[in-house]
Protein backbone atom coordinates (compact mmCIF):
# COMPACT_ATOMS: atom_id res chain seq x y z
CA UNK A 1 0.00 0.00 0.00
CA UNK A 2 0.85 3.65 0.00
CA UNK A 3 2.82 5.04 2.92
CA UNK A 4 4.59 8.35 3.33
CA UNK A 5 8.35 7.93 3.59
CA UNK A 6 9.36 10.10 6.52
CA UNK A 7 12.99 9.75 5.47
CA UNK A 8 12.19 11.64 2.23
CA UNK A 9 9.83 14.17 3.81
CA UNK A 10 11.19 17.70 4.28
CA UNK A 11 9.59 20.79 5.71
CA UNK A 12 10.80 23.83 3.80
CA UNK A 13 10.39 27.44 4.74
CA UNK A 14 9.67 30.28 2.33
CA UNK A 15 13.37 31.15 1.96
CA UNK A 16 14.59 27.60 1.33
CA UNK A 17 15.47 26.54 -2.20
CA UNK A 18 12.91 23.97 -3.29
CA UNK A 19 14.44 21.48 -5.69
CA UNK A 20 12.68 18.64 -7.45
CA UNK A 21 14.31 16.50 -10.17
CA UNK A 22 16.92 19.12 -11.01
CA UNK A 23 14.33 21.89 -11.12
CA UNK A 24 14.15 24.86 -8.80
CA UNK A 25 10.54 25.44 -7.79
CA UNK A 26 9.60 28.84 -6.41
CA UNK A 27 7.14 31.41 -7.78
CA UNK A 28 8.18 30.08 -11.18
CA UNK A 29 9.94 26.92 -12.25
CA UNK A 30 13.58 27.12 -13.36
CA UNK A 31 16.62 24.93 -13.75
CA UNK A 32 19.36 24.51 -11.19
CA UNK A 33 22.36 26.79 -11.80
CA UNK A 34 24.70 23.79 -11.86
CA UNK A 35 22.82 22.39 -14.88
CA UNK A 36 23.25 25.71 -16.72
CA UNK A 37 26.92 25.66 -15.85
CA UNK A 38 27.35 22.10 -17.13
CA UNK A 39 25.71 22.96 -20.46
CA UNK A 40 27.82 26.11 -20.87
CA UNK A 41 30.96 24.10 -20.05
CA UNK A 42 30.00 21.43 -22.58
CA UNK A 43 29.61 24.01 -25.34
CA UNK A 44 32.90 25.63 -24.31
CA UNK A 45 34.66 22.26 -24.48
CA UNK A 46 33.40 21.82 -28.05
CA UNK A 47 34.69 25.24 -29.09
CA UNK A 48 38.10 24.63 -27.48
CA UNK A 49 38.44 21.17 -29.08
CA UNK A 50 38.64 19.43 -25.70
CA UNK A 51 36.34 16.63 -26.88
CA UNK A 52 38.10 13.79 -28.76
CA UNK A 53 36.79 13.38 -32.30
CA UNK A 54 35.69 9.78 -31.69
CA UNK A 55 33.53 10.93 -28.75
CA UNK A 56 31.80 13.78 -30.62
CA UNK A 57 28.58 11.98 -31.68
CA UNK A 58 27.72 10.82 -28.15
CA UNK A 59 28.84 14.11 -26.62
CA UNK A 60 26.59 16.08 -28.98
CA UNK A 61 23.64 13.76 -28.28
CA UNK A 62 24.10 14.27 -24.56
CA UNK A 63 24.29 18.06 -24.89
CA UNK A 64 21.25 18.13 -27.17
CA UNK A 65 19.30 16.07 -24.63
CA UNK A 66 20.16 18.41 -21.77
CA UNK A 67 19.26 21.43 -23.88
CA UNK A 68 15.94 19.82 -24.86
CA UNK A 69 15.16 19.28 -21.17
CA UNK A 70 15.94 22.92 -20.40
CA UNK A 71 13.85 24.05 -23.40
CA UNK A 72 10.78 22.34 -21.98
CA UNK A 73 11.18 24.18 -18.68
CA UNK A 74 12.57 27.58 -19.75
CA UNK A 75 12.07 27.95 -23.53
CA UNK A 76 14.05 31.19 -23.92
CA UNK A 77 17.12 29.84 -22.15
CA UNK A 78 16.86 26.59 -24.10
CA UNK A 79 16.78 28.52 -27.39
CA UNK A 80 19.93 30.44 -26.43
CA UNK A 81 21.72 27.21 -25.51
CA UNK A 82 20.57 25.63 -28.79
CA UNK A 83 21.92 28.57 -30.81
CA UNK A 84 25.23 28.42 -28.94
CA UNK A 85 25.47 24.67 -29.57
CA UNK A 86 24.80 25.12 -33.29
CA UNK A 87 27.50 27.79 -33.61
CA UNK A 88 29.93 25.54 -31.71
CA UNK A 89 29.05 22.63 -34.03
CA UNK A 90 29.80 24.82 -37.06
CA UNK A 91 33.12 25.76 -35.47
CA UNK A 92 33.95 22.11 -34.80
CA UNK A 93 32.94 21.12 -38.35
CA UNK A 94 35.30 23.73 -39.82
CA UNK A 95 38.16 22.47 -37.65
CA UNK A 96 37.45 18.81 -38.48
CA UNK A 97 37.44 19.60 -42.22
CA UNK A 98 40.96 21.04 -41.89
CA UNK A 99 42.30 17.81 -40.34
CA UNK A 100 43.68 15.55 -43.05
CA UNK A 101 41.79 12.30 -43.43
CA UNK A 102 43.60 9.06 -42.66
CA UNK A 103 44.60 7.21 -45.79
CA UNK A 104 42.40 4.18 -46.32
CA UNK A 105 44.06 0.80 -45.91
CA UNK A 106 42.36 -0.75 -48.95
Q: Which terms would index this structure?
A:
single chain, 106 residues, mainly alpha, three-stranded antiparallel beta sheet, 3 helices
Report on the structure:
Helix content is 54%, strand content 8%. Strands 1-2-3 form a 3-stranded antiparallel beta sheet. A hairpin with a 2-residue loop joins strand 1 and strand 2 (23-25). The model has no long low-confidence stretch (mean pLDDT 85). It has helices at residues 33-47, 56-73, 75-98, and strands spanning 19-20, 23-25, 29-31. The relative contact order is 0.11. Helix 2 packs antiparallel against helix 3. The radius of gyration is 20 Å and the shape is elongated.
Low-confidence stretches: none
Largest sheet: number of strands, sense, barrel closure:
3 strands, antiparallel
Instruction: Give the strand tally.
Output: 3
Give me the side-by-side strand order of the main sheet: 1-2-3
**Helical run tally:** 3
H and E order: EEEHHH
Kindly estimate the percentage of residues that lie in beta strands according to DSSP.
5-15%
Terminal Cα separation, in Å?
65 Å
Label the overall shape.
elongated
Cα Rg: 20 Å
Structural class: mainly alpha
- Rounded mean pLDDT score: 85
Share of helical residues? 40-55%
Summarize the helices and strands and which ones pair or pack.
Elements: E1 19-20, E2 23-25, E3 29-31, H1 33-47, H2 56-73, H3 75-98
Antiparallel strand pairs: 1-2, 2-3
Produce a short descriptive summary.
With 106 residues, this protein is mainly α.
Amino acid sequence: GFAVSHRKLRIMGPKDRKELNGLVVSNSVGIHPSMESQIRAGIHNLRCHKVPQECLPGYLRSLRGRIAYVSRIVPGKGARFHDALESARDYVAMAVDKIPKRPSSD
